[in-house]
Amino acid sequence: MPGLTLFQKLWDAHVVHVEADGTTLLYIDRHLVHEVTSPQAFEGLKLAQRTPRRVEAAIAVPDHNVPTTDRSQGIADPISRLQVETLDANCAEFGITEFRMDDIRQGIVHVIGPEEGLTLPGMTVVCGDSHTSTHGAFGALAFGIGTSEVEHVLATQCLWQKPSKTMLVKVDGALGRGVTAKDIALAVIGEIGTAGGTGYALEFGGSAIRALSMEGRMTLCNMAIEAGARAGMVAVDQTTIDYVKGRPYSPKGDAWDKAVAWWNTLHSDADAAFDRVIELDAAKIEPQVTWGTSPEMVTTIGGRVPNPADAPSEVKRHDWTRALEYMGLQAGTSIAEIPVDKVFIGSCTNSRIEDLREAAAVAKGRKVAPNVKLAMVVPGSGLVKQQAETEGLDRIFVAAGFEWREPGCSMCLAMNADRLEPGERCASTSNRNFEGRQGQGGRTHLVSPAMAAAAACAGHFVDVRNF
Amino acid sequence: MRAFSTLNGLVVPLDRANVDTDAIIPKQFLKSIKRAGFGPNLFDEWRYLDHGEPGMDPATRQPNPEFVLNFPRYKGASVLLARDNFGCGSSREHAPWALEDYGIRAIIAPSYADIFYNNCFKNGILPIVLDAAAVERLFRECEASEGYRLVVDLDKQTVTTPGGEVLKFDVDGGRKHRLLNGLDDIGLTLLQADKIKAYEDRRKQEAPWLFN
User: Fold this and answer.
1) Cα(A217)–Cα(A110) distance, rounded to whole angstroms?
2) What is the pLDDT of residues B23-69, one digit of tens each?
3) Contact A195 B22 (CB under 8 A)
4) For residue A1, what pLDDT band results from cuts at 50, 70 and 90?
5) N or C terminus: which one in chain A shows less Cβ crowding within 10 Å?
6) Whole-number Å distance between alpha carbons of A179 and A182
7) What's the pTM value of the predicted model, to 2 decimals?
8) Number of A–B residue contacts, CB under 8 Å
9) Which of A156, A159, A265, A325 to mutate to test the interface with B (most CBs of B within 10 A)?
């Protein structure tokens, strides 16, 4: 009998009940809750006169609607304010722990989970948010759910699931200087497409992945959903265990030793069989820049905007044509010649301390170019912000002309006041370049934090390796 | 949840691949704390020429005459014909809520994103997968013939064209049962309460740190 994949080990540890057709009732260890996808779930519970099964398994934080400027006056937009107040009221009513807007621990849900030790290896982690895949970096089975399932998890602590297929994304070799986990993520999506991972759980493996920090692994797993996979994961190793140790919610004492013994088994066996395997050579990955309106529309900093006439299919030719029209780009344009209007460094993909350090290293001693109307840095949490300020990163950014903001989702999806105006072009460290994502008519190019900082200072995309 | 058995519906063709949930319902409408009322803002940025914000009266908006949902011939459609990877991106259940509120009861596409596909079944919408060649044929027939309708039968798992062609589709047995009967998942799950309790009791011994 072949060995087990990491996915199978995590799955098997959480099976409560299996129906005749294989549909499985899966136990959920950690439920992360935010203000946008939970109000209707709480309302559903109340209408059915149900209560949460295990309030201590849930943790809530407002992140999508929160302002990133001065918070002393609260939220100006009354609709946003009501949504955050509704989360506060629901958590208070049901006894769910919430890091409110004035709590130093408040931040983007996918940043605070790992930061607090709420996300642990071996857990099943869900949240009403597609970027829940982030938490798979810890050797956890983590995926996004809709609001009906948020209600279902609150009421039952379980979900009905069928096992995914498994795909190993193996990246061996050493990344070049200036090339990051974000570039691996975009290169993988460029390779398999935005639907390449549909129906699969992705496991990232190989020597280049082992060499990544936990923050790099989170960036990579975060973008698994942009390849269509609900879950991405990385096996547990010493890097994982070192990161988790000593966090507020991580186990202590005897429980720690017992946990580590189990966590050390959370890797795919050497003879495990995957449904699909793709391999990439880390040394060949270059800094990536998206040119279109889907994360698969990506090329390298040395590349050019492609010609729709060269598209591999009729449907793609149609999509590329439409994307170039929306993006206001001409086929054949060199990526390095494209000027930017705004720069956004932040989001659940790239707002952790290492991301900010990488961006600050580029910004240090430089100035934001005159043609850039706004360059903003939005830390992923209050604690990331505090750490960055302790290291003096905020002063580097401010001296260079960047705005230094309060933590939240911000211009990744522009639910708060931070957004692009029609036609504005943005170098963004976020995860989606969809039409209108950062504001109606806005044009998003996805890049790494270092590439975003370099674009801010150059006024156009530039190869950070030669900058 | 509203049950789904059969549907004889007018078809609207949306000829784009990778339609994401940001396009289906833009972020500004996600600020609502209600489940209903998203229909007027379905595909808002494609459907209107002006910028939409919550609370605007749809009657005062400027429809985009070039967007397919605004063609008079597709008014009242309940079947959405779509391309690959429909519903990709964000997990927002507001996307199926908006489709349902607009009147869409069935979607036909070659493939869907996983989370969206799952969310449809929780909201009385049937997402049907047909092979790309069949979908292409339906696009051509629909665009060529005004008033084009399809008959969907969930129990028999068939789509029947006006010409009498019968296309079979697959659907998971459990999902089909729940959709045919309009069943609430939570009620069904709570029938397994003893097993959930037994699992928790066992895990508290094996992995006590998960229950702190």
Assistant:
1) 13
2) 999 999 999 999 999 999 999 999 999 999 999 999 999 999 999 99
3) no
4) confident
5) N
6) 8
7) 0.97
8) 185
9) A156
